[in-house]
């Protein structure tokens, strides 16, 4: 009987083959080869798979399944998946049932197989077709939903009743603007839109979310003066800079990590910060702390280090300039020395004898 069914399948007479299969199953004449034919014909004729795969799994786990015929069983199941894959390659995957249900039954089938039957490559390939089809369907649904929204835009907003009057007023204007836009009233909706944009441009969260900021400021009022004094006196210190980096990295960790600086330690480091700001140095010749970013920079008075970091061409130019300066200074010194000698000579050579001159008077 199985050979007759197989011939009908090879002749593409799937309807007749399926009728003959159902007659055999009703007569309780079950075997793995017959159920494999049932899976293939049911998919091609009815475009259904889950129930047939489930029946196959139940049979494999039953006592009627002959596990000793490993080679024959493997050949029948491999043929079944090859037929399904060939049909999908030719016509694409066509199902009249949810893909998730087929995937579930396929997973149960894999669990029912004995380890001696190795058809993982076939099962995984078929499973891949199902997963790809599922992804495509999901993508199509998203596109359809988006197109539906574009054709039928939202007519109103849904928002909580517990809104501040100012925020509720803004939401109402947005809702009215959407309604005008849906009606195609461009002029009126433009008026609303311009006003809404101005509100958003000058948006002040304190005014629109008083339920958040009123408790916030009420809480701060207990220590506001101390906090402001602390900010004024400490925001330029090293310890503030370090804590600020921790805050930027993780505000939650800063809160849960406990107090960063004890008061005594803070005072000590505060004195060090004052020293650094006044002297612009931690230790002599080790660099300075930049006042803005507390970063180490090179001492500009260290000529050797500056020259070392200069480009080679710039160093040569600087050496030529230094040589010229030294020659100029030497020339000036020689000229000054010669000038002094000439003055001395003139004084000795042309010194007037006032006593002799008086005789000729």
TrEMBL record:
Ranges for region Disordered: 304-361
Compositional bias per record (Acidic residues), positions renumbered to this chain: 331-361
Biased composition (Basic and acidic residues): 316-330
Protein name, UniProt field: Uncharacterized protein
């Amino acid at each position: 009987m199985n050979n007759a069914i197989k011939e009908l399948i090879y002749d593409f007479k799937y309807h007749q083959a399926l009728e003959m299969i159902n007659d055999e199953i009703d007569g309780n004449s079950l075997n793995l080869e017959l159920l494999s034919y049932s899976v293939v014909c049911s998919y091609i004729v009815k475009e259904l798979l889950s129930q047939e795969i489930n029946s196959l799994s139940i049979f494999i786990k039953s006592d009627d399944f002959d596990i000793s015929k490993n080679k024959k069983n493997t050949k029948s199941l491999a043929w079944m998946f090859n037929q399904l894959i060939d049909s999908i390659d030719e016509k694409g995957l066509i199902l009249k049932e949810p893909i998730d249900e087929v995937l579930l039954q396929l997973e149960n089938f894999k669990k029912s197989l004995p380890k001696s039957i190795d058809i993982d490559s076939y099962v995984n390939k078929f499973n891949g077709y199902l997963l790809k089809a599922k992804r495509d369907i999901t993508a199509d649904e998203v596109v359809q939903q988006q197109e539906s929204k574009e054709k039928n835009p939202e007519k109103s907003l849904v928002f909580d009743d517990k809104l501040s009057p100012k925020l509720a007023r803004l939401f109402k204007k947005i809702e009215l603007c959407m309604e005008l836009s849906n009606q195609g009233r461009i002029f009126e909706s433009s008026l609303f839109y311009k006003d809404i944009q101005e509100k958003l441009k000058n948006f002040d969260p304190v005014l629109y979310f008083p339920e958040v900021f009123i408790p916030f400021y009420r809480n701060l009022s207990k220590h506001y003066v101390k906090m402001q004094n602390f900010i004024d006196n400490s925001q330029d210190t090293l310890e503030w800079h370090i804590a600020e980096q921790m805050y930027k990295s993780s505000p939650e960790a800063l809160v849960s990590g406990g107090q960063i600086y004890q008061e005594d330690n803070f005072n000590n480091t505060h004195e060090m910060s004052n020293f650094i700001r006044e002297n612009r140095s931690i230790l002599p010749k080790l660099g300075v702390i930049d006042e803005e970013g507390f970063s180490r920079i090179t001492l500009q008075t260290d000529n050797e280090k500056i020259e070392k970091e200069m480009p080679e061409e710039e160093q040569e130019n600087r050496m030529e300039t230094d040589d010229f300066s030294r020659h100029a200074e030497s020339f000036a010194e020689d000229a000054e020395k010669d000038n002094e000698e000439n003055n001395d000579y003139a004084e000795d050579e042309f010194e007037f004898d006032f006593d002799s001159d008086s005789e000729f008077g």
